[in-house]
């Protein structure tokens, strides 16, 4: 009896997946225990059968085409079935390599990672805190599986998926004269002590333009690099600050007054993953965990 067509194609599928994971024929050959020429022949045979190119050479590495990415995703059930049939007898802890900037990391993500691991004890998390620029570079360089950032950066090889959307708020001590307002506008900040984000933040320039249009000149008493630092200085009575309320509101709602800031300032939070590599199972599970377990607040919503 003739073998099903899928079995004849298995070597080609193994070569495709190994190249997707390693990016070089040398790495794929080492992973599969084959020669480089055998890997190249298998991929060439698959490309010939499909009638399309699956890889493009770029800076010494093989970059998968969109056709390769789509085919690799369709192969997930096959390889998962093979793993169940011929898998290791001992459970393997799958690792989530996660990176995020400080405003998401130190309080919000720490709590989410803890609950995620409680619910998924077979997973392991390697978590790095770094700048938003480094989040993007880490995904590009395959040092991380999943990034979370408040900055949308259009970069080839990185896919951004919306997570949360929020409007700007004015955070201030609860006894501040503006704390009882239903809302605060740019003109209301004239003459007020204010903690500002450093000028490397895009939002600093946007806020300054709004203040200029309203002919408002607050007194900048401090500059900080994160929204959490701005909120903490406001809590100490140094002044008010205009920030993204997510996720700070969850941790400072009892210490500060959060008043909607009337403007077109909008903040978006994103998941970042690779466009060229398949998303890992732990990364997919953690994204779902965050979407389901992010607590609601008055200023942000699901994207």
Strand content: 15-25%
Distance between the termini: 53 Å
Q: Care to count the β-strands?
A: 13
What share of the residues lie within helices? 40-55%
Integer average pLDDT? 89
Largest sheet: 6 strands, mixed
Shape: elongated
Count of helical stretches? 11
How would you classify the helix and strand content by structural class?
alpha/beta
Low-confidence stretches: none
The order of strands across the largest sheet is 4-3-5-12-6-13
Plain-language structure description:
The structure is a single chain. This protein has 303 residues and is α/β, with parallel strands linked by helices. The chain contains 11 helices and 13 strands. It has helices at residues 5-22, 25-32, 36-50, 66-74, 76-86, 102-119, 132-140, 202-213, 227-235, 249-252, 281-293, and strands spanning 55-58, 61-64, 94-100, 123-129, 146-149, 158-167, 169-173, 193-197, 219-224, 241-243, 256-260, 266-274, 300-302. The protein has a 6-stranded mixed beta sheet, with helices on both faces. Helix 8 (202-213) links the parallel strand 8 (193-197) and strand 9. It is elongated, with a radius of gyration of 25 Å.
Q: Strands, helices and their partners?
A:
Blueprint: H1 5-22, H2 25-32, H3 36-50, E1 55-58, E2 61-64, H4 66-74, H5 76-86, E3 94-100, H6 102-119, E4 123-129, H7 132-140, E5 146-149, E6 158-167, E7 169-173, E8 193-197, H8 202-213, E9 219-224, H9 227-235, E10 241-243, H10 249-252, E11 256-260, E12 266-274, H11 281-293, E13 300-302
Parallel strand pairs: 3-4, 3-5, 8-9
Antiparallel strand pairs: 1-2, 5-12, 6-12, 6-13, 7-10, 7-11
């Amino acid at each position: 009896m003739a073998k099903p067509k899928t079995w004849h194609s298995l070597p080609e599928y193994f070569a495709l997946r190994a190249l997707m994971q390693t990016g070089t024929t040398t790495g794929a050959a080492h992973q599969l225990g084959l020669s480089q020429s055998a890997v190249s022949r298998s991929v060439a045979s698959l490309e010939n059968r499909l009638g399309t190119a699956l890889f493009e050479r770029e800076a010494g590495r093989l970059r998968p085409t969109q056709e390769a990415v789509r085919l690799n995703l369709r192969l997930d059930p096959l390889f998962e079935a093979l793993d169940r049939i011929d898998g290791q007898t001992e459970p393997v802890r799958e690792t989530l390599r996660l990176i995020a900037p400080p405003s998401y990391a130190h309080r919000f993500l720490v709590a989410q990672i803890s609950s995620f691991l409680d619910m998924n004890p077979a997973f392991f998390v390697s978590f790095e805190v770094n700048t938003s620029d480094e989040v993007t570079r880490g995904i590009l360089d395959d040092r991380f599986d999943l990034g979370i950032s408040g900055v949308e950066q259009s970069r080839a090889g990185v896919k951004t998926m919306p997570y949360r959307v929020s409007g700007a708020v004015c955070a201030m001590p609860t006894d501040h004269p503006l704390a009882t307002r239903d809302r605060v506008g740019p003109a209301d900040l004239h003459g007020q002590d204010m903690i500002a984000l450093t000028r490397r933040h895009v939002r600093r320039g946007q806020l300054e333009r709004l203040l200029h249009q309203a002919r408002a000149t607050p007194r900048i008493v401090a500059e900080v690099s994160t929204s959490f630092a701005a909120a903490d200085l406001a809590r100490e009575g140094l002044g008010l600050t205009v920030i993204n309320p997510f996720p700070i509101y969850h941790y400072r709602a009892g210490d500060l007054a959060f008043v909607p800031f009337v403007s077109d300032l909008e903040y978006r939070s994103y998941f970042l993953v690779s466009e060229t590599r398949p998303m890992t199972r732990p990364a997919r599970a953690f994204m779902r965990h965050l979407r389901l377990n992010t607590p609601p607040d008055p200023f942000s919503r699901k994207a």
